[in-house]
Sequence to fold (254 residues):
Amino acid sequence: MLKTLLLEEMTWPEVEAALADGFTSVVVAVGAIEQHGRHLPLLVDAARGDRLAVEVARRLGRSLVGPTIRVGCSEHHMGFPGTISVSTDTLKAICVDYVGSLARHGFRTVYLVPSHGGNFAPLEAMLDELRAAGAPDCAVHAYADLLEFVGLWQGAVREVAPGLTDRVGGHADIAESSEMLCIRPDLVQAELAEAGYVGGFDAALAERIFGEGLRAVTSNGVLGDPRGMSREIGERCIARAAEGIAAAFQAGRR
Fold:
């Protein structure tokens, strides 16, 4: 029985023993440090990545959890103070080195899980190079369907609070804010929660945001409405997201 699934908390002999015992897969979250409205801290996507990667690993089975890549592609959030962004080339270089390191130690599968919307497309675009970095013995997969992911949140909120489903907007909304109530409640300033852009999230909106920046559609940095957030909604969102991502990996999608 492993003491932890977190690679960074293990000693090298413990990692060696886990590999020998068949824990040859690693889940790595790819997060961000960026604005999340007035009520949430900059670390939301990094913290959510920590939790989501563990939940996905548990569902996949015999998988460890690599350290979250905490800074991602957040250029579209740079209109808000505090956001830190890296280029797609920088993120690719980090991911290539992650995969190469893990493959050299004997890991045979790396699962990349974006916990920030701006990382979905870059991860999909770099998959061929990541697979080359792990070749021939380490397979690399990335969950890259942003619209499906938002749909997982919508389904989770619908299960718990059907009347609030339209408050899911994809960023600092009722789903993400509720998750943070479960992960870092000490950093949630619920009294400052307010609606942002509430026109719904689709491919056209995503294209506009990534092209023009988030301030082009929302002055407070929120997509959706965080009001009505709860721990019950948060736990359901985390569970449904992890289930959906694990199912996609198990089905061989990317």
